Amino acid sequence: MNKILLLLVLITSLFSQNTNKPMSSFIASGGVIDLIYKDNRVYAATDTGVVDIFDYKTKKIVKKIKVDKIKDFKGDIVDSKVFSVDKIGDDIMVLSQDEKGFSRVNIYKNSQKNTIIDSRKKLSIIKAKYLDQNTILLALLSNELISYDIAKAKQNYRVQVSGGRFSDFRLNETGTQTVVADEGGDIHIYDTKNGKKIKTLGGQNLDNIFQIDYKNGLVITAGQDRKIGIYTQIPNSAYSLESQFLVYSVGLSPKGHLAGYSCDENNNVAIFNTATKMQIGIFGGNNTTISNIIFISEKEFLTSSNNKIVNLYKIK
């Protein structure tokens, strides 16, 4: 029995030594739902109705955006979950939960709030990102995409992606294209200017895709089927990698050379080279399910999970 215990201790110790720990951490106001990095700031959208804005170097909160509380179906006053956050210029867009099951979009500039969409529009929006200073892309729970003109307060177009439930979308670097993932396992690429579908990619995931990323022409998927799908611009070059656990989150480095995915039940993140498929390392220290993997550069990345801690890692 003592020999078995000793063996288990040695295995645990070896595993611990091979897992890279966070270089530092940010402490948010609640469980982090969305996470972005812009202009040396980290923006964390939380389930407690707060967007925390951190200085990337000091790791300290420099500003908090608090959205108004709402009444739930019982009439109780509760925190409004912040579903997503984005920034362009000096404008910060916050998508949050509104009353009666609908959503609201507020834009904050110089401490002033401008409500763009609220429950009166009767839209169940799950994600919102800027296309340009005056245009935002909205994704609905019904798996529809809406291009919305802020100044004119009207929809440029509204398209149905598929009959499946919406999972995630990501824009390319210029905002001219978006890739959309849903429960069917396919990837749909759209022109964001006119809302027309460019093409559909598939074959790497069998069913629901939890999350997606799009960098430098590469697309990566996080699959319920425990697969990470990679699609490139080269014909017939798509491939998938097997994981030992459900893949809840993925992320690509700015150049698309590296990718990360949540790889096991211990909430670790595996980093691999997208060209060679070789694993570079395992990164641990996350206590709950990974919600976001955001690369700052080819050498640094952030992870958030269903708690307050945002971890920063250095790739050696």
Briefly, what is this?
This protein is mainly beta. It folds into 2 domains: 127 residues, Lipocalin (Beta Barrel), CATH 2.40.128.630; 144 residues, YVTN repeat-like/Quinoprotein amine dehydrogenase (Methylamine Dehydrogenase, Chain H, 7 Propeller). It contains 1 helix and 31 strands.
Characterization of the model:
With 316 residues, the protein is mainly beta. It folds into two domains: 34-160, Lipocalin; 173-316, 7 Propeller (Methylamine Dehydrogenase, Chain H). It has one helix at 2-17, and strands spanning 19-20, 24-27, 32-38, 41-46, 50-55, 61-66, 70-71, 77-78, 82-88, 91-97, 103-109, 112-117, 125-132, 135-140, 144-149, 154-160, 166-171, 177-182, 187-191, 197-201, 209-215, 218-223, 227-231, 239-242, 250-252, 258-262, 269-273, 279-283, 290-295, 300-305, 309-314. The longest helix is centred in the N-terminal third of the chain and has 16 residues, at 2-17.
Secondary structure topology:
Elements: H1 2-17, E1 19-20, E2 24-27, E3 32-38, E4 41-46, E5 50-55, E6 61-66, E7 70-71, E8 77-78, E9 82-88, E10 91-97, E11 103-109, E12 112-117, E13 125-132, E14 135-140, E15 144-149, E16 154-160, E17 166-171, E18 177-182, E19 187-191, E20 197-201, E21 209-215, E22 218-223, E23 227-231, E24 239-242, E25 250-252, E26 258-262, E27 269-273, E28 279-283, E29 290-295, E30 300-305, E31 309-314
